[in-house]
Structures are given as structure tokens and as C-alpha cells.
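User: Predict structure, ligand iron/sulfur cluster.
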Amino acid sequence: MDVRSQIAMVFHLDKCIGCHTCSIACKNIWTDRKGAEYMWWNNVETKPGTGYPTKWEDQEIYKGGWEKRNGKINLKGAGKRRGLTNIFYNPNLPVIDDYYEPFTYKYLDLIESPAGDDQPTARPVSLITGEPIDIKMGPNWDDDLGGSPDFARNDPNLKGISPEEQEVMFQLEKMAMFYLPRICNHCLNPACVASCPSGAIYKRGEDGIVLINQTVCRAWRMCVTACPYKKSYYNWHTGKSEKCILCYPRIEAGLAPACMHSCVGRIRYLGVLLYDADKIEPAASADDKDLINSQLDVILDPFDPAVIRAAKMNGIADSTIHAAQFSPTYKFVKKWKLALPLHPEFRTLPMLFYVPPLLPVMATVKKVDNTEQQEKMHPAAKKWEDNWLYDTSTKELWGTLDQIRFPLKYIASLFSAGDEELIKEKWRKLMAVRIHRRKVTVGDISDEKVKETLHDAGMTAEIADEIYALTSLPKFEERFVIPAAHREQAIEMMDFTGDTKGETGFGIKGKIRRGI
Amino acid sequence: MNALNNFFLIALPYIALAVFLVGSIYRYKYKGFQFSSLSSQFLEGRKLFYGSLPFHWGVLFLFVGHLTAFLFPRSVLAWNSEPLRLMILEITAFIFGISMLIGLVNLLVRRYSTPRLKFVTNKMDLVIYLLLIFQTFMGLWIAYNFRWGSSWFSTLLTPYLYSIFTLQPDTSAVSLLPWPVKLHIIGAFTIIGIIPFSRLVHFLVPPFNYAWRPFQQVMWYWSKRKIRSPRTPWSVQRPKNN
Ligand code: SF4
Ligand code: SF4
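Assistant: Predicted complex:
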């Protein structure tokens, strides 16, 4: 057992309101620079949708992640042989148009235009060339299902969903959606690290944050291909790749990353997971159907005395072990088993977990005969020709799982590598919590009914209350349990800190010029 | 004439080599952030295919070829002792040279015909393109007009280069060579001297290590195991500053 600690995250999708505050917080701090304008280390997508970059989930196009062949895993579009032979021209590299051409507006024209007959306008200009452009794409162009025929319909997760089912999904009266905020997953088996020919990318041993060393990166651009989540970006100006750094300067000080701190829906949780590094390889090469279980298996119980002993032997600080015991991530992922990784089939063992969304899927759709109703209507009244009824007046308080508006397959394709039972299990739990709380607060549900639901979900009333408390009422310190790094000790042991005072700091202080 | 020869065949090589060594080391050590191939594939990915691939494979083959002729002249001569083998070598090298030239021209055209690339191109890029095109063209010219280069390189140029590297410059043989060959030599040393000031530095850091390193890399800020071993309280190692 080789115990290490990882800062891991949970995003509760039922709570995301799609406000993009997280993206803006990140952009303002880290990517508001030339060459990085198009990068959104944090972005929020509407699902169903094609996402950013367009159709990033379709690995037939982007060749990201790992694939398993003959029991061994290898990188799909990069790796040793491909990485070295494709170094002069990477056939699997997305280009800027797959993201979008960054733009701004000529606001100054509004103020400085001479008097005339027309209102001055602020024309959009490209942030690369400075020339006026017609904006065709943006990082969230399909927000709230905008332009569905072009975007939502092309969602790679719709593969394997029958045309009839898709029709049902996209009828205007029945359409449902949810938001999917994404950042780098700081994976346990990161494809970006594995693909970097110059070895510039590394995972930090202390907290598992994955970083790119900017002085070692040589623009071989293999990480962009290899990351299946397209969360490693190429800076076209500096000629270096960049990615989410999980605000490590804040994490080291025990603060929450900017996106999480600013999250309006308070959907984000962050805490320590202790994991067994020896189990990473077997877990990443497990069979498709065992993927989730073997991934959860890598995560260790922070209360187990053997784990604590091994952790101490590995030099993990007591404060970190303590934080692991109070980690909201551990509760959601391991204790309650409510959260799932996004696209586990990419085999990078992401350390960002999602509680699958329940709310948008629970209204019911029925096929009914509307003819009688329609005949009664005034001839001038607007009528719908179809015979669907969007029904919220279910006999069961929450409808039943089989009447959901999203095909189960769709959610399963996102979060469980196609395992529908697993998604049902999470939903049953989420529903049981709601039904239990409904009884407590309103009291219009019978005890038997509540007992039965809790039993079905394999939960007790106490656990349901705990889940409720951490979902709906958590304080800031409960959402973010971050042990500060103990670098002060390390530094003091190596150097007299006074000698280097004023020398440290991070970021690039010199002026960036391309070429020399 | 002699002064000119001495300048271009002795002084220039030494200046170029010195600038190359000092400049590259300095840039690597103190300007590490500027060590990059500055790929522009992200802004333009289609035309690059017809430029970068023929150029890079061509230059790779020819670089290794020149290096072999310099390091193992006798092996090259032995290989060339059979006319058929000589032809094979010469023709292959010529094809790679053409491929390099085509690649370079495509790259140059691509740079100046794609609006976006204008914003990631600097003057040094143009200088390199022109120098390399000139160099490749001279190489092809020499290969065609002064046959067979692979053989006389080993007998004439290898001793000259050897004399340069052993600090006993001897230009008696090369100074008699025709002017295109001299231009090729001058071009070569100019390119070497320009390396630290251009994106060419990326060829100094080929990622060969990737072939045998393990896929995953974990880095520790310091050895926690040592410092925080529960058996030895960390305060035993007293900080130096108090
Ligand atoms: S999400 Fe992508 S960039 Fe982030 S660690 Fe995983 S493979 Fe690397
Ligand atoms: S800030 Fe929070 S609620 Fe708003 S979009 Fe981001 S994740 Fe969702």
C-alpha cells in the first residue's frame, strides 16, 4: 500500500444554475492574456450539447484518452511511438476553430466615432488578427439549448439512442437540459502526463495537482491530443501548453480555488482523498463494466487504522489525514456512493466527481389522446398536433424512474460508461432523500412509504439527513476542507528563508516575445 | 583571397561555434521559457502537413547523413566502393534534399499566405527560412554538379572539419574547392551561429528520453518521507536559520 493524498472534487449537478460565474472567476485570474484568450480552464456546458471544444467527447475525432487492447492500456492518439513520429505534424491536434476564434468588440468606436447620421456600433474583432470578424462560435454558443439542431442534436452521447427516443428528447414541450461545469480532473492516471514527450507535465506528490512546467514545455502539443477532456490547451502566442492549476497557490494556503469559492449555486465541494498508488494501474486497465468499482477501490478509508499508519509512514501530515476524515468528497464518492466520474471509460481516473442530475429528468411524459380536448377548443386557439402530455401531476409524488425525460442511456453514457443500473441506484438515493425530507418538513407522506423508499435505496433516515445537510445547508468550511501545505517547514530545512526573500514568486516576470 | 578564405573558413566557423555554444547554454539556463519549437499548427493545421513533414524528415536524414560522413568517413567510403551502393546513397540523399526544399517553400508560402500566421511570425523566422532554402538549394546544386559528394565529403571535408574541431585549422584542401561548396560551408556555419537566436533551438532538446521513461511522472516538492518520518521528529533536523 502506497498511500498518497489527492485534492479531489465533487460537483453536485442538481444545484448548478449555469451562471458561468466560475468560468469568469477563472478567466479573470489566469487566462486573461494574449494566446490564452480562447482557453476556458473552467467552462460550463449545456447538456445535451456538443460542448467546448465542439464534440470533445467524441474520441473518434479527437483520439484522446486511453484505450485497452489485449488487456493493456495505451494512449489512443499519442503515446511513445505516435508521440515521437508525429512530432513534426500531429494529425490529431484540434485547431483553434474547433474551440472558437477569440474576439472582442471595438468599444472605443462607440465613444470616438465622429458625429454622423448613424449610431456608432462596436464591431467584433478577432483577438488574433485584430481584423473584424463574424462571430460563428463561442465557448458556450449552445447555452440553454440555443441552436439545438446544430448543437444538442450532435451530442456524441446520443450515439446508441434510438431516433424515436431522440425525437422525444427534442420535442419543444418536453425538452430537458442540465449544466455540466468542467475543469481539469487532476486525474490519477493522467493522459496528458503520459503523452508529454519532454516530460514537462507532472502530478504533484503532495496534493495530486497536475501541472505543466512552462520552461520544459517545447510545444510538441501531444497533451492537447491526449487529454480526453480537452483540458490541456496550447497557447499560440507563447508556444507552451497550459492547463488548470487548481489555483494551487490558494490550495497551498488552505483556500478554495477561485471557481469553487465564487460558485453561486454552491455546487462545488473539495476535499482530500487518500488513495493507494499501487492500485492505479490495475484500476485503469479494468474491464469496462468494473471500471467504476475498481476506481472507487483505489480510494482508501481515512478512518482505517492501517491506512492511517501507512499514510504516516509515507510522510502525509496529520492535518492532511484529519482533513481526509472530514472530506466532503470522501462522503459523496465513497461513503454515500452518490457521485460518479465523468466518462470513466477514458480511463484517466478523474478526481472530479459529479452527482448526476435528478431534477430535470423527473417530470413525466405520457402519450395521450388529445383529440377530444382539441375539438373543444376555439378554432383560433393555438393547438399542438401531437398527442403528448407533459404531466407533472403524477400519482407518485416524484414520478417514477421509468418515466424520466432523459433516456437513462444518455446519462449512463456520460457518467457510468453505459451502466444504467448504476445511474438508477444514484437516482433512487437522491429521491429517497427528498421523500424523506418531504415527510419531515411537510408530513404528507406516510411512514411506510418513506421506509420503503429508504429501504429501496439502501439508506437509513440518518444518512438521508446527512446527505440533505451537506447538499442543502453546508457552510463554507464544510464544502471546502483543505489542509494547508506545510512548505514552510520544508523551506526552512533547506535554506535560510531570509536569503531568498523577494526572489520567489511565480508566473513569468520577463516580457514574452515569440522567438528570441 | 587568402584573407577571405581565412575569414570564412576559419574565423567564421569559430565565431559561429562559440556563439552557438555560449548562446544556447545561456538561453537554456536563463531563458528557459523561450526554449520552444513555437509550433503554429494550432492556428493552421492543413498546409502545415505539406511543409513540416517533408522538411523535417528531409533535414533529419541529411543531418544524420552529414554527421555520419564526418564521424565515420571510412565506413562511408567503404559503402561507396560499390557503384550501385553509391548511386543508392546519392539518389536517396538527393530525394530527401528535394523533399526538404519543397517543405521549406511550402512552409514559407504558408507563413505569408495565412493571415493568422502573420501574428506569430517574426523577422528571425524569415531569416531562417531564407537561410535554409539557400542552404538546401546549394546542397542540391552541389550534389548535382560535383558528383559524388558523399565520397569527396569524406576525403576533403571531414579532415577540414576535424581540423576545426581539434583547433588546428587546415584549409589547404577546402580552399581549392569550387565556390558553391564554400558557400555551402559558410551557410552551414551561419545557421549554426544563428541557432541560439531563433526557434531552431528546439532541435537541441529532442525528447528521446520519452522512449524509455515511464508514462507517469510524480514529483515531490521535497522528500516528505524523510522530513516527516514519524520515527524521527522533524525538529531533530534543526533549521539553519535559528
Ligand atoms: S483532465 Fe486532462 S489535463 Fe487534466 S489531468 Fe486529466 S488528462 Fe490531464
Ligand atoms: S458558478 Fe457554480 S452554479 Fe454557476 S455555472 Fe459555475 S458551477 Fe454552475
